[in-house]
Amino acid sequence: MFLLLLLLQLFLTGQSTAALFPPNNATTHSAALHACDQLQSSLGSSIVQTTGKEYQAGATNAWNLQNCQYQPTCIVFPRTSAHVQTAMKAIYSTGSHYAVQAGSHSAMKGWNTVQDGVLILFTYMKNVSYDPKTDSITLQPGIRWQEAVTALEPFGVAPVGGKDVGTGLLLGGGISFLSPSQGYAADNFKALDVVLVNGEMVTATASNKYSDLFRALKGGGNRFGIYNSSATEALLKATARYTREVNDPNAVLLVALNNIGGEFFSFAGMFYRGSELPAHIFGHFLSIPAVPCSPLNSTVCSPPPPLGPMSYLDVMATQGSENQRGSVQHFGASALDGADEDAYLAAFKHWSNFTATFKDEFALAGMAFTPIPESQVQAGRAKGGNVIAPPRGGWAAVQFGEEMKAGVKDVPSRVQKGLDLLFEQVPPSPRLPLYLGESDPQQKVFQSYGDYELLKQIYTKYDPTRFNMAHTQGPGGL
């Protein structure tokens, strides 16, 4: 069965906007040294490391190559929640910059690592368990979803999570293969053990005194604790039609368009919890003739698997692995109403122009559509709602993703200017929220949330001195 509820040990570390990128200077360097000295004295050199093989492996662990170029003053490898509390108390008292890294799968520069600061890395906190009495999963923050799904499959349950990425997916709300029937991944929280910026640990639920914090964590990010052809046009129109018309919680669709070396190819992943792919749901996609893979893209393009039953683990495996490191990655986001087919065609036009302009910069560039049906929105509301608070379903979350060529150490400024123009050309439809986990650091994601004002109030309550905003990178706008 598909599990409905999660009990997550998430060690977040809260706040809001003064600057998206806190400045570094002699004072912050000194504060980081002070914090690391304190932590080595209290936790020991095996947990708090400043050099060595494990330190270096941790510092270069991030999926995005940009985030492998930071050198934290020290790395804390906690084994228990008490270690996380001790780390945050020292960070808070010394005014040190800091960052938290779970699965490390972030395209946002600096969001999961830090220069001249303390990095809390959850390498050793990867436990997962299932309680059949309460029908609940407990996850520690260092586990990746593929690991969790594999461990839980013998119990006949599956978490509402992502593929081979980390639990950080939940901080942006989280879009899962199970979302059409279960809501955003974060809608399935039962309880959250949260370490606040001052080191205090609280358990937030929908009904206790931290219910506001519980809601804010459903999409609040790290601020609250720790491609043109007739076939392509047919694919885009079918995507828009599916998005506006399909409200079956058993149906899941992911559409991706990719540009590799100037050659475009597309992918449509169609999944249905039943005995067949219903023609009235997926017929428009199945009628589009498949184009065989060319020698150029044969390394990333393969014939589709035959239609047939798949386990949830099999479904997850169709998306491949995110374990490969060594390249600079970048994301951007939009959200398009399914009623506006022209917006989907225009988005593709602008994206294909962008990728053609900068094709020599990219190893791969993609644009993906994930439909958000009304069933997903209602499932979330039935579980208490989340701070994203989308007004309705029938729209698609849009992701732009780029992988720079080997040897590139940062997103070139001219590419970033092109990206900024692309975001202006493909804005979200009115009142639709951006997806935090697939956004550009400069995009105003929180401002797109339905409960933005509430989110700001809750942030101020739990971090009145705005410590998190001043000392760790992340989304702005609070």
TrEMBL record:
Belongs to the oxygen-dependent FAD-linked oxidoreductase family. This is FAD-binding PCMH-type domain-containing protein. It comes from the Eukaryota. InterPro entries: FAD-bd_PCMH (IPR016166), FAD-bd_PCMH-like_sf (IPR036318), FAD-bd_PCMH_sub2 (IPR016169), FAD-linked_Oxidoreductase (IPR050416), Oxid_FAD_bind_N (IPR006094). Pfam families: FAD_binding_4. GO terms for molecular function: FAD binding; oxidoreductase activity. Residues 1-18 form the signal peptide. Residues 68-237 form the FAD-binding PCMH-type domain. The lineage of its organism: Eukaryota, Fungi, Dikarya, Basidiomycota, Agaricomycotina. Keywords: FAD, Flavoprotein, Oxidoreductase, Signal.
